[in-house]
Fold this sequence. Notes:
Blueprint: E1 2-8, H1 27-32, H2 39-52, E2 57-61, H3 68-73, E3 79-80, H4 92-104, E4 109-114, H5 116-128, E5 135-139, H6 153-162, E6 166-174, H7 176-180, E7 186-195, H8 212-220, E8 227-230, H9 234-242, E9 253-256, E10 259-262, H10 267-273, E11 278-282, E12 290-292, H11 301-304, E13 308-311, H12 315-321, E14 324-326, H13 331-337, E15 339-344, E16 350-356
Parallel strand pairs: 1-2, 1-4, 2-3, 4-5, 8-11, 11-13, 12-14, 14-16
Antiparallel strand pairs: 6-7, 8-9, 9-10, 15-16
Amino acid sequence: MRRIGVVVNPIAGMGGRVGLKGTDGKVAEARERGAEQRAPDRAHEALEALAATGADVELLTYGDPMGASLAREAGFDPVVVGHPENPDVTSSADTRAAVRAFVDHGVDVIGFVGGDGTAVDVAETLDELDDETPILGVPAGVKVYSSVFGVSPRAAGRILGSFSETEPAEVNDIDEDAFRGGEVVTELRAVATVPVADQRQSAKQLGGGTVETLSEGVAEGVRPGVTYVLGPGSTVGAIKEKLGFDGTTLGVDVWRDGDLLVADAAESDILDALGEENVIVVSPIGGQGFVFGRGNQQLSPAVIRQCDVEVVASRRKLDDIGTLRVDTGDSALDAELEGWLKVRVGRYERRLVEVVA
């Protein structure tokens, strides 16, 4: 029997769709902007996938809203090892307390639902305990830079129930205030033991390659009356520069007919600005290959369904990542996006690349 501890950070990812680029210290503001919890749905997907493996599992979890009811809904009869100090306002201290309780109960692996901040809480607690229990993240945060996550909630659930080998992986976090200001400042926070699995994501690469001709090609091809929703990243940033404006490097900008309609847009801003014909321009995350679902949750299913999608990337980046991935939070949309896609790699050149969920 495999003893699995699962803890859910219920506020993870709330800042994404409302344009906050993270939730650390921003929960109240996220709620004021109308943010909804994302992590519980992601946790439920992962737990259902874990149950579907048929593995002989004893599930341990933390009290609501950090996992107990979600585990029961997925068909488990969990052992509840503790409760958050204040269920209405959970904190990193609650996550760390859950990890300590899991270790005390001798779990074989710890699954956590959150982003890089939650990964840091889990990994640092294990370091303090001098414990090497494997961990695996269910991606639910805005920032998912570390290589300790499944590529999707369902992939994470399957891995938790089936892995047989482990290896070390980095846990990185970024400064959210710098991130909101358009700068990526990363820090290696820990090295954790993780399952070996093809469906575990790689660490994010932060750069590489020229995109001069690619950006010129996109700029030359813009059409009158079309609304362009331009995603984050340096590649799309070069396109924004060619269009004649200083874009939000790590945010989403909306542009039409020479005018910047919205800078650093939240989901609601994008939806309000869309016209009759719309195009999303995005570039995959280097090292991971994600087109949607990592760092651009403003590009929600509601936005994507009203737009054509153009993916741009340097040849070098595509050589490194091989396939593209999507994790929109809407399984039906992910299935629609799967298949072969022509990715622009130069002024006129395109490369056929497979998209997988």
